[in-house]
Give the backbone structure.
Amino acid sequence: MLTSPKRLIMTIGDSRVGKSTVMRLLIDLLCAQKKLIRIYDHDPRYKLAAYSQIFPIENIDFFRGGTDIILDEFKGNYDAIAVDMPGQYLDKVCQYIHKVHLFKLLNDYNWRLTFLQPISHRLDCLEYLERLLDFFGDSADYVVVKNQYFDQQFSQYHRSEASQKLAALKGTEIILKELNKYSYETIESMGLPYSAVSKHLEIYSVYRAYTYRWAKSFHSALINNFTVKNYLGLNKSQQIEEYESTF
């Protein structure tokens, strides 16, 4: 009997929609669940740099020979590999995956690819998502993150063909609530992982509280969605109450 596939997770999508924010929150949760993981930063802006304080973050460039590194990881005992991809590079990503026969490699080692795509209010995000779904179809799994920093209703998304195609491919969606902008700016200026904010008493207590509730809300959305847990390689049985003591 085959075990569930391990997960290669790529945050992907348009520029400045929250890809690295989502990846940082996911790293916190994977670490809290004591998963054996590898994290790679493919984005030239190095938005994951703060997390090198708590976990090794490696730089990678698939477009310049990074495949061999990942292939070696497939052979190891890792539960998941997560890669924060650069924005807007959909054509290059598609060409790369096709060129290296990535899906065959994943299948050979019982891994599966999950695309984790935050979206904003912009139509560009929907066009990006639809092209992604059309290109890869059911060869991959999809989690769309509705980033409420940009929109609350996402009415254009819900009326779009992209939303219908996502449902047809058994993709799923979750909400990332808006974080108070002063909390966000303070954390960014200090270069902190989100999981470390509550321990830094020099940060205004209200900002620490906002950040904790914001992160907890997102992690709760992940933990309480069985499909998301499957697509992101999370523990199937963990409840949010168990998680709280580790954050």
Q: What stands out?
A: Strands lie at 6-11, 37-41, 57-59, 80-84, 111-119, 141-147, 172-176.
